[in-house]
């Protein structure tokens, strides 16, 4: 080090210590010497510094008003690397003494007695101590007069090892008890003759020799292979790098203390171009596995179960995977032994497209939800046969062909979207014909990315910086949710439309200025009727982002007819009407922002549908004379409807009896013949009718019944006990159920799903043969008069059910929606193993299919609200039903009851379906338990919700967890409900339990009040002045909520 460097070093490092009274000694202190914190208070207790200025010795405290320790500290990082008296902290006046016998901390005086807090007593030397020296390595040593070391702090470590320090065999490093308690903890690292071992209370739980090594592999990894972030922590999770060094594959987190993802990263720019498990982040110890079946990320082990966070399951190939390769383009591919690609990350993009990548028609790029949430957002870029389109909740708001900077070169159908070093292109099937192009300047590395703000950007990396080349939509107001729901966007500024007020950027948004009006909630709003609808004008020059990308609902129609079209459609929330074109546009859920019209050739009139909620409705009714007409028409219509139903039932009954009398099996019609020759991969054993008749002893032992048939106990020739389900409703829907169950259950295998062992299709007879679950359904065990189901058993049942549904929704070959999740369809065996049964109401979905069902299905009391709103039915409907079941598991009773019931009454009404109450007598209870659970959640009184029969034998934290998860599942908005995979993660404690959203649970209050009102009038049969009895009013009340409300 030169003289100038030496001067700067002393100026920056030592000067603050030297320019004070009681100077700090550099490197060596000779004995005798004494120091206390109080004596060196101006130096923060520091009395010795190493010659390189990197370490100090001091008597210091860790924070204000805490005791003091003699410690060694690294100057730049303020890290304490060693503490002498960790088990015996001292005061600021207690002193450290250096004598010929060594170092000692005395709590009162300098004599060697019981007041010694710490010392180096028993030095293994006949020499006397001459000096104390703090070496440049941070080692504090005691020297004799010949400078021979007699003792060193490196030989007596606390919880830290520094560079240059070595531990001899038998030495241990002990943890602290806590941040504010530096005494010895229970964990230690011990150096043995053969290893380095971690111990807890002398019991080993890890050793260095068993830790797998994690070198980074170049380009190709052969199976089998496994990797976790923890395993490759020294490489920041990186385990694979492309041969050109431009891309890495790693298991990494995006920021400190955040979850981990399996991702591909561009090295120079640090840009993440692909994430596998974006919807299911993992921990640093969870592993990625490469096997002959492909890639999979497991959250617990390597077996294929519900702990799979992500996988390449369902590879369209009969070949087995041989290797994983990260190509120079950034494409991660799986290869067979002939190096043929079986799967590639470029075919499964996330939010980013890179140079050399092409997307086929039908492929989409989905944005993230937020910077700190990489799950799928609401915006997507979709490649169609004619364009590249940006969508928000399936509604288009931008297309490449309309982009001013783009140009159309051909009218052939689009087959691919490609990004290269000259721009963005839509190409024909030959990959050379340019249909639409967006020409950009040359670039070495370029990406196209869809942001969570709804904008599509193309950027290039130049001179260590990102340069934006293209962004669209350029108009802020073209972003669907720029001003939230119902906000008006004008030149990028947000306000409320005319006749509305509020803050458009807040959650409450804009509401009608007239307090007597309210925005409708769609088909779930039962208050809506033709007479109570009022249209609020949005101004003469307003527009909606989707209007320019869709056809009108109707053309050549008047404004009043357009409004009437919306009034008669409960899913319509408003209209836009073109005066010049006489075109009618309908607004549906979800509703985005309103925009000031920017097109001179499309002047539209906007109107929002509102519901009259005050006395104004009465005035409107008086003006229209509705009550008189209603009183005349409603009874007449009801009588006519009853007559039609009775006549229909008589005809149906007569035809059924006639068919039954003809033949025991019935004639096989054309549809039956088709069913008998049905071929399904993995089809189970086919039985003859006579086989099942013998197995069930002529169907003598009935063990259950359901909406589509009766279940009998049977024994096959191999002595295995089975449950034989006879499908008695062999109409069109019965055949649908039968075919679905064979196709789905026969090929579905999971520990929490009932196994289909065989089937019978003979004549018109339909049977399904299941594995036998000897404890029956959950409703019998949970609600019956037998032994009370203990809390831990309930929790395991809840978890097992969640795992089964998660498998159906996310991990089997195709997404399966159960549609009838209820205790009766959750089966148990003697070990309380949980299996979900009855997929008869399921619909098998491929990713391309719509999730919309054409017929309503399920059981009242468990059906999600969207069944009657016209909203697309998704797997979130099962999540809602699971939430209802979860509350019943907590309570031990059905979720609803008109009045308190005794066990005998409940048993009389249950008819064996498991609706019985506690055997300890009847107890008062809320009419609608989900509402009571919501109210107790708001008061944080979760333990009061648990089954009283358990007499307190519950885990309060688990009660809280189940109730909060259940309420999250009951959100009225399906998009707010967690996926079942997330539910499993929350129940297992892998992910934190999210807070229920109060605003999406308010509908429970409506159901609860309506049910309570119905319960109060249930017992009365008095007629009112119009001739309606109380029971009539009860049925009317219940029909308004029969789907989502109590049953």
From TrEMBL:
Residues 32-155, 224-347 form the Bulb-type lectin domain. InterPro entries: Bulb-type_lectin_dom (IPR001480), Bulb-type_lectin_dom_sf (IPR036426), G-type_lectin_kinases/EP1-like (IPR051343), Kinase-like_dom_sf (IPR011009), Prot_kinase_dom (IPR000719), Protein_kinase_ATP_BS (IPR017441), Ser/Thr_kinase_AS (IPR008271). The keyword Transferase applies. It holds the Pfam family B_lectin. Residues 897-907 have a biased composition (Polar residues). Residues 910-921 have a biased composition (Low complexity). One of its GO terms (molecular function) is ATP binding. This is Receptor-like serine/threonine-protein kinase. It comes from Salix viminalis (Common osier). PROSITE patterns: BULB_LECTIN, PROTEIN_KINASE_ATP, PROTEIN_KINASE_DOM, PROTEIN_KINASE_ST. Residues 697-994 form the Protein kinase domain. The chain crosses the membrane at residues 628-652. Keywords: ATP-binding, Disulfide bond, EGF-like domain, Glycoprotein, Kinase, Membrane, Nucleotide-binding, Signal, Transferase, Transmembrane, Transmembrane helix. Residues 1-21 form the signal peptide. Residues 897-924 are annotated as: Disordered. ATP binds at residue 726. The keyword Kinase applies.
């Amino acid at each position: 080090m030169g003289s100038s460097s030496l001067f700067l070093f002393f100026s920056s490092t030592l000067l603050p210590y030297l320019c004070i009274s009681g100077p700090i000694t550099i490197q060596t202190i000779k004995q005798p010497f004494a120091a206390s914190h109080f004596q060196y208070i101006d130096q923060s207790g520091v009395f010795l510094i190493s010659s390189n200025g990197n370490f100090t010795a001091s008597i210091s405290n860790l924070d204000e008003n805490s005791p003091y320790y003699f410690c060694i500290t690294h100057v730049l990082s303020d890290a304490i690397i060693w503490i002498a008296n960790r088990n015996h902290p001292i005061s600021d006046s207690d002193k450290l003494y250096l004598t010929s016998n060594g170092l000692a901390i005395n709590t009162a005086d300098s004599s060697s007695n019981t007041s010694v807090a710490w010392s180096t007593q028993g030095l293994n030397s006949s020499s006397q101590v001459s000096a104390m020296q703090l070496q440049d390595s941070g080692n504090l040593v005691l020297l004799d007069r010949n400078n021979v070391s007699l003792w060193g702090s490196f030989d007596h470590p606390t919880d830290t090892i520094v560079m240059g320090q070595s531990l001899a065999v038998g030495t241990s490093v002990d943890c602290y008890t806590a941040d504010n308690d530096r005494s010895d903890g229970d964990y230690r690292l011990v150096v043995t003759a053969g290893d380095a071992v971690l111990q807890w209370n002398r019991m080993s739980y890890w050793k260095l020799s068993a830790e797998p090594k994690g070198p980074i592999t170049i380009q190709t990894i052969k199976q089998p292979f496994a990797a976790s972030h923890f395993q490759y922590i020294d490489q920041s999770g990186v385990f694979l790098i492309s041969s050109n060094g431009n891309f890495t594959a790693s298991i990494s987190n995006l920021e400190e203390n955040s979850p981990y993802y399996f991702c591909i990263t561009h090295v120079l720019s640090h840009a993440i171009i692909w994430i596998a498990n974006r919807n299911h982040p993992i921990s640093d110890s969870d592993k990625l596995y490469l096997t002959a079946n492909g890639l999979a990320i497991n959250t617990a082990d390597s077996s294929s179960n519900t702990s799979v966070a992500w996988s390449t399951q369902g590879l369209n190939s009969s070949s087995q995977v041989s290797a994983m390769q990260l190509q120079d383009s950034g494409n991660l591919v799986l290869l067979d032994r002939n190096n043929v690609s079986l799967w590639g990350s470029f075919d499964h993009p996330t939010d980013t497209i890179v140079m050399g990548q092409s997307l086929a028609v039908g492929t989409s790029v989905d944005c993230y939800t937020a910077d700190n949430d990489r799950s799928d957002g609401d915006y997507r870029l979709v490649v169609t046969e004619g364009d590249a389109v940006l969508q928000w909740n399936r509604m288009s708001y931008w297309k490449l062909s309309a982009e001013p900077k783009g140009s159309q070169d051909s009218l052939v159908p689009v087959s691919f979207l490609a990004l290269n070093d000259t721009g963005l292109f839509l190409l024909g099937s030959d990959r050379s014909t340019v249909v639409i192009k967006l020409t950009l300047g040359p670039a070495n590395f370029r990406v196209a990315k869809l942001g969570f703000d709804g904008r599509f950007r193309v950027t290039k990396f130049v001179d260590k910086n990102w340069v934006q080349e293209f962004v669209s939509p350029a108009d802020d107001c073209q972003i669907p949710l720029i001003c939230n729901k119902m906000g008006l966007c004008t030149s990028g500024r947000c306000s409320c439309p005319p006749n509305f007020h509020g803050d458009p950027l807040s959650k409450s948004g804009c509401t009608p200025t007239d307090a007597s009006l309210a925005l409708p909630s769609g088909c779930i709003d039962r208050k809506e009727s033709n007479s109570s609808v009022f249209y609020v004008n949005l101004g003469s020059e307003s527009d909606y982002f989707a209007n320019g990308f869709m056809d009108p609902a109707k053309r050549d129609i008047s404004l009043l007819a357009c409004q009437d079209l919306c009034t008669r459609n409960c899913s319509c929330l408003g209209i836009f009407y073109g005066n010049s074109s006489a075109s009618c546009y309908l607004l549906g859920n979800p509703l985005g922002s309103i925009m000031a019209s920017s097109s001179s050739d499309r002047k539209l009139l906007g109107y929002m549908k509102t519901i009259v909620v005050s006395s104004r409705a009465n005035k409107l009714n008086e003006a229209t004379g509705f009550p008189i007409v209603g009183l005349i028409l409603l009874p007449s219509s009801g009588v006519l409807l009853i007559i039609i139903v009775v006549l229909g039932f008589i005809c149906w009954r007569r035809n059924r009896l006639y068919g039954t009398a003809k033949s025991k099996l019935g004639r096989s019609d054309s549809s039956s013949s088709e069913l008998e020759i049905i071929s399904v991969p993995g089809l189970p054993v086919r039985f003859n009718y006579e086989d099942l008749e013998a197995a069930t002893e002529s169907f003598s032992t009935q063990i259950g019944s359901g909406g589509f048939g009766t279940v009998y106990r049977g024994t096959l020739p191999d002595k295995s006990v089975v449950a034989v389900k006879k499908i008695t409703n062999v109409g069109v829907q019965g055949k649908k159920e039968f075919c679905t169950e064979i196709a789905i259950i026969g090929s579905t295998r999971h520990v929490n799903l009932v196994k289909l062992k065989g089937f019978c299709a003979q004549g018109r007879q339909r049977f399904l043969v299941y594995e036998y679950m000897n404890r029956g359904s959950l409703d019998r065990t949970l609600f019956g008069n037998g032994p009370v189901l203990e809390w831990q058993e309930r929790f395991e049942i809840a978890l097992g059910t969640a795992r089964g549904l998660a498998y159906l929704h996310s991990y089997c070959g195709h997404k399966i929606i159960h549609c009838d999740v209820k205790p009766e369809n959750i089966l148990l065996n003697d070990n309380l193993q949980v299996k979900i049964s009855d997929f008869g109401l399921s619909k098998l979905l491929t990713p391309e299919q719509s999730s919309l069902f054409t017929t309503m299905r399920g059981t009242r009391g468990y059906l999600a609200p969207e069944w009657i709103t016209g909203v697309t039915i998704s797997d979130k409907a099962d999540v809602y039903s699971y939430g209802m079941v979860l509350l019943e598991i907590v309570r031990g009773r059905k979720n609803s009851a008109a009045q308190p019931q005794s066990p005998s009454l409940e048993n009389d009404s249950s008819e064996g379906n498991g609706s019985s109450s506690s055997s300890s007598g009847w107890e008062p209870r809320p009419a609608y338990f989900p509402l009571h659970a919501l109210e107790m959640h708001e008061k944080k009184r979760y333990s009061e919700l648990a089954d009283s029969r358990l007499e307190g034998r519950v885990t309060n934290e688990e009660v809280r967890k189940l109730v909060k998860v259940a309420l999250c599942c009951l959100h009225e908005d399906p998009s707010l409900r967690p996926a079942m995979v997330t539910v499993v993660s929350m129940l297992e404690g892998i992910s934190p339990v999210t807070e229920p959203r109060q605003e999406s649970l308010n509908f429970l209050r409506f159901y609860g009040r309506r049910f309570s009102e119905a319960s109060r009038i249930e017992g009365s049969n008095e007629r009112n002045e119009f001739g309606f009895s109380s029971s009539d009013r009860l049925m009317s009340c219940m029909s308004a909520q029969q789907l989502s409300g109590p049953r």
